Amino acid sequence: MEILSVDTVNRSTAGTAAYYETVLGLPVSKEIGAVEVTVGRTVLRFHEDADAAGDQHYAFLVDDARFDAARAFLTAGPGLLGDGDRTEFEAQDAWNARSLYFPGPDRSVLEVIARRDLPRDLGAGRGAGAKASSPPASGTQPSPSAPFGPGDLLSVSEVGIAVPDVVGTADRLAAAGVGRYPDGSATFSPAGHIDGMLILVSVGRTWFPTSDRVVGEPPVTVVAQAGPSSPGVVPGRYELAPGRVLVVRP
User: Fold this and answer.
1) H/E element, 233
2) How many contiguous H segments (helices) and E segments (strands) does the chain have?
């Protein structure tokens, strides 16, 4: 389920634009009360709402070969968020992925995630069929030691969304072909596939690995499409909660 766009709100579009443009170096388009950020294949759109409550979470996909470069870049820039002494997190076996978390604008919790099972042809210049953990073809990708840059952020891989009934919402999406990961609970359930997923959570949780970034309930529309890793997703419009919608294109 490749995520094409995310439309939502935040408390300061000026601060958001400045962060994505100057800290991450991403393309940003600004207008009064709104900002659009291009993250690889995904467009993030924020509309200003000074009264928006709670904090948000997004994960950005990186090639596994660029993970160390991402860590160096983030350590020197916004800094890493950790859990005790840990700042690198290996996911459970079903994910076959590893992550770094860092503070984003408007108290958001951002993440870079390397999913080793993704086909490497999802990134520019990649050999079709190769895995994300495979060595890059000569001349097609930066070396692992090359400086990290905005082009290394391939897409929005995860969007955190609060819902009143985590299990019920995950069940409805599973019936529509949206995958369900096995490590969910009554307050947390990843729904999607390795090419993109929604992190369904209950209101009042904090975003991992923080203790003070609290899940909010902003309106959000996520537009996605079935990809090579998610061929069984049924196109349609799915209301996850009031004001929170997933649209799957054919």
Assistant:
1) none
2) 3, 14
80-139: per-residue pLDDT in tens?
A: 999 999 999 998 888 899 999 999 999 999 999 999 998 665 544 333 333 443 334 434
Q: By residue range, what is the domain housing residue 18?
A: 2-249
Tokens 């860590």 belong to: 71
How many folded domains does the chain comprise? Answer: 1
Phi, psi at residue 225, to the nearest 5°?
A: -145, 155
Q: What is the pLDDT of residues 5-41, one digit of tens each?
A: 999 999 999 999 999 999 999 999 999 999 999 999 9
At 86, give phi and psi (nearest 5°).
Answer: -90, 130
The residue ranges of DSSP E strands in the chain, in sequence order, are: 2-10, 28-31, 34-39, 42-48, 57-62, 88-90, 97-103, 109-115, 155-162, 188-193, 196-201, 220-225, 236-241, 244-249
State the Cα–Cα distance between residues 235 and 93, nearest whole angstrom: 29
Encode pLDDT of 53-73 as tens digits.
Answer: 999 999 999 999 999 999 999
pTM as predicted: 0.91
Q: What CATH number is given to the structural domain containing 104?
A: 3.10.180.10
- Residues 115, 156: contact at Cβ < 8 Å? no
How many CB atoms are located within 10 Å of the residue 204 CB?
Answer: 11
**Cα separation, 66 vs 14, whole angstroms:** 30
